[in-house]
Amino acid sequence: MSFLYMILAIAFIVLLYMRIETTLLKVRRVYLTRSSQHLKIVQLSDIHIKFLKVNITKILKVLEEEKPDLVILTGDYIDSVKQIPAFFSFLDRIKGGNEVFLCFGNHDYGAFHQNESGFLRFVSDIKQKGIKVLLNESVYYKKGQSTYNLIGIEDFRSKRYDLKKAFENCESNVTANIAFSHNPDIVLELPEGKADFLLCGHFHGGQIWMPFNLEFMILRHEKICKMGIIKGLHKLNNVMIYINSGIGNVLFPLRFLSKPEITVLYFK
């Protein structure tokens, strides 16, 4: 009986820690240049507002301290249309004086159950907040003497991506082409030479760590994770890809050895 109590106590402690870990926040810095004339982007991903346990004041403190040129959100905000008000409240606070861009993830599309008109209203309401929604499209951005194409690509799993459309209006002779999308597998579809950098999310860094990458071997179907690319910075097909571990949680509010993450990236 004492052995059973010990097992139950250990299970309780582990579950308690997993719940606490969802409230933590790691700031990861990625230097793609050491130049003082950099473009600074803060990336947030996989908000999953229903199970977001990171206090928003922590996120706002990072944004205030970092003063980024741009904030980019890379998908998975809601799982149901009932969560839209909570997500909009989150967006309003994140927006502040920041220039914010975003794309959508598979959970966002799934929340509308093929209700395209509802989804388009959702997009319109976000744009009215002064947030730039890039759906298979690009914008030109200039900072100092450096110029960039920012390319938002719709979600790979949702089969809404259109790479020809996404890149067709890109300016030539820019400092860098920075693409962002939700699912990292899109990197395997990118045309040669079209993107220098790709920001993604989707994998949650594992969310619940398992030995030998079992989560990715058993529960995930994406090709890129089968190659051992699950989080952080990698180079694949001549594209530098960063996979953010996200700040929210899917299915349940638990994490294990995969702290919520905000990424600060420096580009040139």
Structural topology:
Layout: H1 2-21, E1 26-31, E2 39-44, H2 56-66, E3 70-74, H3 84-95, E4 100-103, H4 106-110, H5 116-127, E5 132-133, E6 137-143, E7 146-152, H6 163-167, E8 176-180, E9 197-200, H7 214-219, H8 223-226, E10 232-236, E11 239-243, E12 261-267
Parallel strand pairs: 1-12, 2-3, 3-4, 4-5, 7-8, 8-9, 9-11
Antiparallel strand pairs: 2-12, 6-7, 10-11
Mean pLDDT: 94
Oligomerization: single chain
Structural class: alpha/beta
The level 1 CATH classification is Alpha Beta
Query: What would CATH call the architecture?
Result: 4-Layer Sandwich
Radius of gyration: 19 Å
Plain-language structure description:
This protein is of the alpha/beta class and 268 residues long. It has one domain: 4-Layer Sandwich (Purple Acid Phosphatase, chain A, domain 2). The protein is built from eight helices and twelve strands. A six-stranded mixed beta sheet has the order 1-12-2-3-4-5, covered by helices on one side. The chain has a six-stranded mixed beta sheet with strand order 6-7-8-9-11-10. The longest helix is centred in the first third of the chain and has 20 residues, at 2-21. It starts with a helix and ends with a strand. The model has no long low-confidence stretch (mean pLDDT 94).
Outline of the structure:
The protein is α/β, with parallel strands linked by helices and 268 residues long. It has helices at residues 2-21, 56-66, 84-95, 106-110, 116-127, 163-167, 214-219, 223-226, and strands at residues 26-31, 39-44, 70-74, 100-103, 132-133, 137-143, 146-152, 176-180, 197-200, 232-236, 239-243, 261-267.
